[in-house]
């Protein structure tokens, strides 16, 4: 033994010593790694071959020796010369032979056997394909001469040989597979352990040429060793057992890529099928025991067949391929029946059962075959009885797996059935679709959709039954798996409905009738509301045999039947529904009529059942639209369901119907949800068939008004039903946007009249409550104290005692008096009133500003918007320093903090985490009408968001009422309200503020009213946001994470703060991009849309700037200064003319955003920089700003790593600046010199290349070279970016802007 080898043995003994110190172990590990990576490859090979892998060495030493040899072959092959490489291959072969013990002698350890085989395969791949045939013949001959031990090693070698050739490593560079480009591998063109750096075509070709030699060897190995292994019986560790398992495993590896016909010719599929059948027979006789051959061969045999089912039939080998697949599928079908037909099979295939893995593999293989080769299932079976029987057996077992209770098995066949139905539904045997429907219904009954009220474990139990505790999917993965399973089941039902709608409707009726007649349903319907609430909400479990268990079982079945009805009714072809409605399809009409009769006869006041009842009635919407006479019956029944359910109110409701009591119990919440669900069902029904309901609009309006006047509707229910009336009233209204020809359309006028009637009724009560806008109520006057008194007054003693008693009744700990807040009636009312306005505006027509007809909301807009502005003033002041002091004095400082659920949303947590946080915080469950701090926080957030949404929709859909009238007074009032305490608006509120309220005004304000609305609004806003964000980003720092996981040293508050700053920056960038868009002022953008998509593909800045120049060009295009620019189209142009300092600030802010490490914000700000470049070519005033600040920031952008996706765009913008402005000002060259250190000669060369029309790619590379070769000088060092406080270096456009304004005033043009 050499000295180095002896040292290695000594070091390994240190690692193996049980009482060695950790320091010595670490030192030994480091020394071994140094030896393996730095010692000469020849020394390592010599030591390993001659000493380390010898039989008399300990297993740990041999393991290290084989690992060292493998490292030499894979990573250090280039260090060996040609002769040494040949010797290495010969040595690897000798080692392999030495490991193969003769006959049935004691085997080498598994680790040694696998490493010796893998080493030989690695050496063969490194030497090249010229040695492969000889190596294969050598190992085959040795296996034949020596016995089963060598046969096993030969199989291990053959399974390792295709590694990294058929399946290259992921990081490999893609290579061409064309044969004319393929070159044989040589020692010089292999790098490391991956062979993907060479052409793989020749390697795969060589492998294919060896298949006809390898497959017979594998078959012979199975033939010789299988009988011997079975004869050995319980002695399952014999060499013959190992040989059979290795041969099957190798066949499975080759089945993934070897021609199917070649394996079939060699008999591999027949052999695998025979072994599988023998194994299953042995398992049945051994009562599920898989430890004794041949039962122990069941998994590798299945794997051979499973790997084959993913192969697709080629165009030139139909019959041979089909014959091979018949053997494979027949064996799998046999296995499926053996697993499912045996009475003991249910326990065998269950979670933890002895055949759990086998069942999963068999089911997956059958499903894969149906997905990959649906044609083999559905075609060619018309006249061939054998094919008909084979198809029937396959479909039968696939259906059987679809029906098993275990969810992971039941989910696997669904994609296969979907593929088969899509391919050739008409060729399926009779009764197949009916059986599929019944199977789908059974699974839905086992796993109805339920909320996560009882937590994840309860959710899993509802879906998975007894498998829930052992299901090997956890957390959100379980939620995703089950959601995908249900969606696939819905798709399956939809396809079956398209194929046989009559059968589908009949099955839906049958399931609904049987479920509604269950004794548990009758028991539930007869009990007081909410008695079984916790049981039905998955908060408690029912003991078997109890009434609660019967109720739970029945409710689950009824819920599943309703979901099945919804799926079927939503999937029936509309033409068939029309035929049923007209009497042309009496079969379908009878099924639908029977279902409707069952539902209409039900009279349930139990809220859980009433919610499902409403869903079932809603599912008839498409049938009602087709002309069914059931329309009035369905709508009347929904009204009846609403009225007959209890609407219990708080003791001190303040005249607000249905106000939640303190800490409402489950019965109250269930009734509340059920009534709201009925209202939603009516709304959805009206949205589905509005024209059919339009003739009944008067009656519907009378019914809703009566219920509201009698106090039988809550505010939210009134809102839903009012929206339902608007959906009916607006049906058939022609599109008015950009269609002035519709002005004279009588249908439009009639539709607007219907809408106005409904709007007037809905707004009438609000007009009284809000004082008609004549005088603002105290809470909307801006007085924080009055706001708190109205909405957040402390509870009196009686109410506090009631709250404590209610909390005790539902099992909550006694609430602290300081945590209880009153004003619930006022909060409940105003919250729903604001959201009513939002729903009214969403459902009414979209009338452009220039349209001659009036919007239905126009007469209400002045007083309603004034009230909305007043609420926003109060909310803004609430977060000011004065407001916070007032809140703290009232003992409610926590009122202004973020909730945990909000924090989870900002951090990007899962929906389940957000829901869990909401459940933990929402102690009283009363929503915005609750008495807790959390409920009041929800109210403040919902009220603010609702006000912003009202402004956004009104500015877009009702521009005449929003902007018109006394435009200057309204614009000033809006600006004063929105910008009140602007510095105190938190980042979490700024996002929606900028996107909805400000963004909609900027995008949709009519051009002629910009002076009244834009002038008071944008200058202070833009200046404030620019200065504020500069300070915020200075605090966040340039090292902020680009939305990545927070560092370990960052606190949650710091991460939340950074994310909120990013959100504000992105919304500000989007707002400025909207200002730069030539389309602003047209009203053609929805209030929820983000900035216009002015970001072209990378490298196309030149084309984008040319397009902007054309869009910006106007009637007076001959001049180059602001006076001659004509009438501005974009808001940015308008600002440059009328508010030049603000326009310059917009450009400067957008350019500065490019320097901040937020890729999304930079992408949104880039269009403004392009607009600045386009405008600078026409406006001399912008030349210096563009040549200094804009250019400096674009250059800085190319140095921000997270902006790599927009670097090509930035380089193209730099080119455009040089091309358009370098001949007009020397500042371009000066900026280049200052920010990149570029010499005059380098810039002159760049300017020359730009003007001679070089390719864009070459110019980008030239610019990149100048930037990277120079010194990276920060933008701030060039004095072109602002610091804290007010934005710096805003260009002085005031003189020319004043001159333009004076000229326009003289011409009578309004500001």
UniProtKB/TrEMBL annotation:
GO annotation terms (biological process): protein export from nucleus; RNA export from nucleus
Domain of life: Eukaryota
Signal sequence, start to end: none
Gene Ontology CC entries for this record: cytoplasm; nucleus; RNA nuclear export complex
Domain Exportin-5 C-terminal: 359-1269
Family annotation (InterPro entries): ARM-like, ARM-type_fold, Exportin-5_C, XPO1/5
Matching SUPFAM superfamilies: ARM repeat (SSF48371)
Gene Ontology MF, one: nuclear export signal receptor activity
Regions of compositional bias (Low complexity) in chain numbering: 1077-1092
Pfam families associated with the record: Exportin-5 (PF19273)
Region feature Disordered, mapped onto this chain: 1075-1097
PANTHER family reported for this sequence: EXPORTIN 1/5, EXPORTIN-5
The protein's name in its UniProt record: Exportin-5 C-terminal domain-containing protein
Source organism per UniProt: Pycnococcus provasolii
